Amino acid sequence: MTSIAAAAPTHPTGVRAYFERAPLAALFLGISSGFPFAMIGATLSSRLAEAGIDKKSVTAFALVILAYNLKFLWAWVVEGVRLPLIGRLGQRVSWMLFAGALVLLAVINLGLADPNAGVGQVALAAILLGIAGATYDIVIDAYRIELLEPRQLGAGAGMSQYGWRIGASAAGALALLLADRFGWGAAYAACACFALPGMVTALVMGEPQRHRPIAERRPAAEIAQAIVGPFLEFFRRRGAWLVLLFIILHKIGDTLANLTFRLLFNDLGYSKDEIAIYDVGVGFWALLAGVFVGGMLYARLGMKRSVLVSLILMAVSNLSFAGLALAGHSNAAMAGAIGFENFASGIGGVTVVAYFSALTDLRFTAAQYALISAAASIVGRVATGTTAGAMIETFGYVDFYLLTTALALPGIVLFWLMMRAGLIDQSIGTAGTTGDGDARATTAD
Questions:
Q1: Measured distance CA(116)–CA(366) in Å, rounded
Q2: Which of 22, 99, 167, 364 is most deeply buried (CB count within 10 A of its CB)?
Q3: What stretch of H or E contains 397?
Q4: Cα within 13 Å of Cα(408), Cβ side
Q5: Is the dihedral of CA 322, 324, 326, 328 positive or negative?
C-alpha cells in the first residue's frame, strides 16, 4: 500500500489529467456545490446592503453559512440511512437527487423572501438553504472522492474547485444582472437551475465503484456505525489531533476576508455590472490559471510541498485587498486583487482539497469529509458573523485585511512542523492509498 503523499510524482501531469472521465464529473459536481454558497453569501450581502441593512446585520448573516460547518452532525444520515423508492439507485445517487431537489426549492424560497418586509423572514429562508446546501455538499464530496482513483485526487480536486468557482461566480453574477432587470425573485429562481448539474452527473455516472457500505444489510448496525465509526477511525491515527488543529487553523484569515469582499466593493462605489465583470471575468481566468498551476505543483513537488506553497500564497492574497482599500475605486486595483486571490485559491483548491480528500476512509467518506470541510472554516465564519462588521467599522478595511493575513500564519507554521514530524504521510486514509488493499487497510493499521 502506497500513500499519495509518497506517490505524487507518478501522477498524470499536464492538461490530460483534467480530461479523464472522473475529474470531468468532478467539474459538474463542483458547479452544484458552489452556487448555494454564493446565494447565501456574497449575493445575499449585496441584496441586504441594497435594502439599507446595516453592516453588522449583513455580516451577521454569515452565521447562516455555519450550517456548512455543522454538517458533520447529520452526515451520518447521508452515510447510513437508505432512502425509500429512489434508494434502489444506490446510496450516493439517491441522496444526490434528494439533496439537489431540496436545494432547488430552498433557493426559490429565499428569492421570494423580502428584506423590506422583515429580516426574520429572510433569515429563516437563508437558514433553510444553508441546511439544504450543506446536505448537498455532504453527498457531492463523498461522491467525488469515491468516484476518483487515488492518482486522480489532485486533478479531481482541481476540477471540483474550478466547478465550485464557476457555480458560485456564475450564479452570483447572473443574480446581480437579472436582479437589476427583473427583480430578486426572478434572479434566484433562475439561479436555482445550478442545482441540476450534480443531479444529472450522478444519473450519468451511476453509483461510484469505490463506495464501501459500512455494514451489509443490517440497517440498525449500519446507522450506529455511521454515527460513531468515522470519529473512532480518524482519532485512532497518530497525530490526529494535530491534523484536526491544522484543518481548523489553516483557513481562518482567508475565510474572514472572503466573506467581506462585497462590503468593500459596495463601500468603494462599484456598480453591480463592475462587480460582475471583474469578480467573475478576471477572477474566472485567474482561477483557471491557478487550477492548472496547482496541478503542476502537485505533480512536480508532491502533496506536502505543494500544500505548503499554496498556504503561503493564500495568506499573501489577503494583502491585495488591503491595497485595493488604499487605492479606492480603481478598476485596475480591483482586477489585480481579485485576480491574485483567485489564482491563489485555484492552487489551494487542488493541493489542500486533495490532501483533505486523501484523509478519508472509504467506509466513512461522507461523514469524515463533512467533519474535515466543516472544521476548515468554522472559526473564520464565526468571526465574520460576530465581529467582522464591527472590526471594519472600528479599524477600517486596510488594517482588517492586514489582520486576516497575520491570522493565516499559525496554519502555515503548523503544517511545516507536521511535515518535519512525518505526520502528513501517516494521516492519509484509504481514499488516498494505491494498490489492491486501498479499500481494506488504512495507514493507521
A1: 39
A2: 364
A3: helix 397-407
A4: 24
A5: negative
Amino acid at the residue 125: A
Distance between CA atoms of residues 146 and 22, nearest Å: 10
pLDDT category, 417, cuts 50, 70, 90? very high
Neighbouring CB atoms inside 10 A of 406's CB total 11
What is the amino acid identity at position 156?
Answer: G
Q: Which one has a higher pLDDT value, 136 or 10? A: 136
Least confident of 46-55, 129-138, 281-290, 402-411: 46-55
Phi first, then psi, for residue 137 (nearest 5°) are -60, -40
Grid cell listed for 382: 464565526
Which residues lie below 8 Å from residue 257, measured CB to CB, with a gap of 6+?
318, 321, 401, 404
The partner residues of 434 in beta bridges, in order of sequence, read 2
Predicted TM-score of the model (pTM): 0.77
d(C-alpha 17, C-alpha 21), whole Å: 9
183 and 54 Cβ atoms separated by less than 8 Å? no
Q: Which of 62, 22, 71, 66 is nearest to 43 (CA)?
A: 62
Domain range list for the chain:
2-434
**Contact, 248 vs 378, CB < 8 A?**
yes
State how far the Cα of 211 lies from the Cα of 429, in Å rounded to an integer.
Answer: 14
Superfamily of domain 2-434: MFS general substrate transporter like domains (1.20.1250.20)
Quick one: residue 37, left, alpha or beta (phi over 0 = left, psi -120 to 50 = alpha)? alpha
C-alpha cell at 189: 429562481
Cell, residue 40: 447565501
CB of 253 within 8 A of CB of 408? yes
Chain mean position to CA 45: 19
Contact 195, 139 (CB under 8 A): no
In sequence order, the 6+-apart residues with CB closer than 8 A to the CB of 334 are 265, 270, 274, 278, 324
Q: How far apart are CA 104 and CA 191, in angstroms?
A: 9
CB 57 within 8 A of CB 48: yes
Across 412-438, average pLDDT = 79
